[in-house]
Amino acid sequence: MTELTQTIHSILAELRPEADFSMSVDYLTDGLLDSTDIVSLVASLDARYGISIEGTDILPEHFTSVATIARLLGKYGVAS
Amino acid sequence: MIAHVGQYLQETSARWPAAPAIIGAETSVTFGQLAEQANQIAAALIDVSPLTKCPIAVLLPRAPATVAVFQGVLWSGHFYVPLDPQSPRERLGKILTDLSPLAVVLSQQDHLHLAPILPPHTSVIELEATLLSAPTDIRKTIQLRMEQTIDTDPVYLKYTSGSTGHPKGVVLPHRAVTDYIEWAAATYQLGPDDAIGNQAAFTFDVSVQDIYLCLKTGAPLYLIPESHFSFPANLVDYLSTHKISYFCWVPSVLVSVSKLNLLAGVDLPQLRWITVLGEVMPTRHFQYWAAHCPTATLVNTYGPTETAIASTYYVLDRAFEDDQPLPIGTACRNTEILILDEQQLPVSDQQTGEICIRGSSLALGYWNDPEKTAHAFPEIVHRKHYPEKMYRTGDLGYWNERGELMFVGRLDTQIKHLGYRIELGEIESAASRVVEIHRACVLYDASRQQLILCYESGRELDRGALRKELAETLPAYMLPRVLLHMPTFPLNPNGKVDRQQLQSHYLSQTTTPNGMA
Questions:
Q1: What is the nearest CA distance from A58 to chain B, expressed in angstroms?
Q2: Which of A26, B408, B423, B508 could lock B161 by a disulfide, CB 3.0 to 4.6 Å apart?
Q3: What angle do CA B98, B177, B388 make, to 5 degrees?
């Protein structure tokens, strides 16, 4: 696990401590993240990495797993 | 003049049988099909019992067939109670026990897993099998049952958060809904060429406006997929693709689009009405929508669950400073707003007092709760010549110099979170049932839109386990995001929990929040 994926894991655990993200292949269809979680997650990622994720990038396909979130962050120059 | 809410579909399906009525993510129906489905549901309910005017629990998702079920219930002479089948089972069980419905309508799948909490002697109607059954001609029976319904009979009952930990059921009569819908249809001037974009869950009363504006005017109702509200870029695409011309959403949805500047470069020429209801609309974000949707009229509306949909409305007619609150306007038709002091007497001009509502839109009261009903719906004391009820909202407001109503805040700890009305006491009650928690106090940080649970306990509890336990009794939107452990709560001189000090404790752990409840 890279430092980036570890950080994403810990942000997710902070958001939804009761959820088991490790067993999920799609956080959205499994109902692990709702609309308020997405808003909080984006705010946390923005703050943690000093970036501003564009609204047009806040799409379901970028929030299905740690890997897709990491790819999205890569677009903003966050190294994995 | 329409006296029975069920008449809307009868008239519209006769006039435009083949026109699209309700468009869901997976299925859609025409007005004719909707009427056929409603007929099937009515037939099944008429078979259940000769009784009428009974509550029928509808445990179905937000889908076209659910609207048909609501109409079928009304056509059979009963009233409907929309419930979310995804709610925690314990909460649903409490509600069903309180309601004791004549019948429940649910899907075959939900029947299996909800069977243990269905009250004994309640008939079960499975949606799929009922819609597939052979059609029967029961038009005469339906007509008779509708004629036997008077306009003060219940049309729906909606459960809302209760401060003692038990949700309370608000019962609305036909005349409240028909009076409001006639006003709304005349105001918004919708027709079959329009398209209504629904956001509200069917358990939330804004959906009543969406459904009956569709059934009254022939404007198709689009049930926008819930996931689009998590990803507002998709929501803006949806508005454009489906040429939505009218919507009434909770302000937090408009705020999420505005914060992400998703309307920049987007043209929505078909959008004629942008209306909001359910919580305070932040001025800056309302003006963002006004600037980017020049063809639309923006309306800020206000109304508690205890009256049919909106009681007041304000049409945006001027520019505001970002920190200036928006008016909630003037009363809708057949509604009067009274601003009263603690003795329930009128305050002097432009003074702040409790917003009270009188008129045809009032609920009949709370289901099975005469005490709460008497408290919230007292007689108007300063009009002594004949008795008349009003509704005490618990909201504070005043008339500005233009004669527009301004909302100031609450008299109690009720809050609006993502459009949902929540009594903080209900969350406190759920938390107090956790074995290791001695006392619980819930705060609300409006700027971050998050609920904070402060709990008094001998040790800090595992966050995941605590949230999981709370989720067994509370719906997802009521789950506190922040869990603050304290060995002992600060008390005020009266020996009560000092909420101010708890807020200071929370604030000391975070940065620049405001608007605490």
A1: 6
A2: B423
A3: 80
| Cβ-based burial of B183 (10 A; exposed 0-12, middle 13-18, buried ≥19) | buried
Strands B297-302 and B312-315: antiparallel
CATH top-level class of B328-410: mainly beta
> B216 with B181: CB under 8 angstroms?
yes
Domain B13-19+27-176 has CATH 3.40.50.12780: yes
ipTM: 0.82
Q: Which of residues 20-79 of A touch B (CB under 8 A)?
A: 28, 33-36, 38-40, 54-56, 58-60
In a domain, A80, yes or no: no
pLDDT of residue B383: 83
Kindly state the average pLDDT of the residues B82-91. Answer: 93
What is the dotted CATH code of the domain comprising B414-508?
Answer: 3.30.300.30
| Packing angle, helices B251-259 and B283-292, rounded to 10 | 70
B461-472: average pLDDT: 92
Q: How far apart are CA B64 and CA B85, in angstroms?
A: 16
Predicted pLDDT of residue B512: 44
Residue A23 maps to which CATH number? 1.10.1200.10
Is A47 within the bounds of a domain? yes
Give dist(CA B164, CA B423) in Å, integer.
Answer: 8
Residue A39: closest C-alpha in chain B: B230
Cβ pair A34:B233 closer than 8 A: no
What is the torsion angle, in degrees rounded to the nearest 10, for the CA atoms of residue B473, residue B475, residue B476 and residue B482?
-60
**How many pairs of residues across A and B have Cβ atoms under 8 Å apart?**
54
Q: List the single residue in A16, A18, A38 with the smallest CB-CB distance to B230.
A: A38
pLDDT single digits (tens) B402-438: 999 999 998 888 898 888 889 999 999 899 889 899 9
B231 touches A at CB < 8 Å: yes
**What is the band of A6 on the pLDDT scale with cuts at 50, 70, 90?**
very high
**Distance between CA B130 and CA B43 in Å, rounded?**
9
- The CA–CA distances, whole Å, from B370 to B168, B170, B355, B468 equal 12, 12, 22, 34
As a whole number of angstroms, the distance between CA B149 and CA B162 comes to: 30
Angle at A28 between CA A26 and CA A29, to 5 degrees: 75
Residue B216 near residue B191, CB atoms below 8 Å: no
Task: Say which DSSP state B482 is in.
Answer: E
- Altogether, the residues listed in chain B come to a count of 517
Label residue A53 by pLDDT band (50, 70, 90).
very high
Cβ-contact B211, B196 below 8 angstroms: no
The number of residues in chain A equals 80
Structure tokens of B146?
A: 């509708």
State the burial class of residue B326 (Cβ atoms within 10 Å of its Cβ: 0-12, 13-18, 19+): buried
Token pair of B96 as six digits: 């069903």
Structure tokens at B457: 């306990």
> What range does the domain containing A56 cover?
3-75
Answer whether B260 sits within 8 Å of A58, measured CB to CB: yes
B433 token code pair: 């049932």
B230/A18 CB distance under 8 A: no
